[in-house]
Amino acid sequence: xxxxxxxxxxxxxxxxxxxxxxxxxxxxxxxxxxxxxxxxxxxxxxxxxxxxxxxxxxxxxxxxxxxxxxxxxxxxxxxxxxxxxxxxxxxxxxxxxxxxxxxxxxxxxxxxxxxxxxxxxxxxxxxxxxxxxxxxxxxxxxxxxxxxxxxxxxxxxxxxxxxxxxxxxxxxxxxxxxxxxxxxxxxxxxxxxxxxxxxxxxxxxxxxxxxxxxxxxxxxxxxxxxxxxxxxxxxxxxxxxxxxxxxxxxxxxxxxxxxxxxxxxxxxxxxxxxxxxxxxxxxx
Length: 284
Hints:
The chain has helices spanning 3-25, 31-63, 65-74, 79-93, 101-120, 126-130, 157-164, 170-186, 218-240, 243-264; strands at 147-148, 151-152, 199-203, 206-210. By secondary structure, it is mainly alpha-helical.
């Protein structure tokens, strides 16, 4: 057994079997499916502090986007001065560009281990499961039932279309929609930045400002494209992967949406919910 399995995979299997045994004892139907949901929630709760730190760091970086755009325009052609002013801006606002990386580095191995377990959960033999359990009291006497509301967690939507019908496509569609909601909430459109083309004309004693938004840089363009491309990719994976993984991923995403809303509100989704006239914005 390698270090990855010893430190991550084996503990996750033990938690999954513990949850499954509890649900089975309570005679909960489709116990394995609900165990996957509860296991995903448990992992999300464990990773909650790291995810919160990542979201806050990402939010601060997005808030600085208009200022960074101004610096790029002001110091175009002077890379050294641009770097110096950028670092000064980060220091002024208390932003560490690397702060959002550490939580991701910590989360990825755990998420990958969870993915590994759920990818093999329907193919594990009874001996393979019991050999990885810490306590004999957790040992399973028979292999678990892999159906969830009549559907096998090991089956793929692409295989079930001919048997179940087109309704099975609602699963990858839901996966893509949930992913879009979470991605949209994470990215907030930065305020327009005044460019050098700002002109002030005096007409009849009145001042008229003509504003032109700066061109989107590569990062902004990539962000906009990934907001639509990534959910489509996830929906396609959900169509070709076993249902157990879709169940995990949808639970993971829903929990992420709730966490995102708790920490930062609707974020980029606010554009779809225009405020009513006279509504005051709640400030934190």
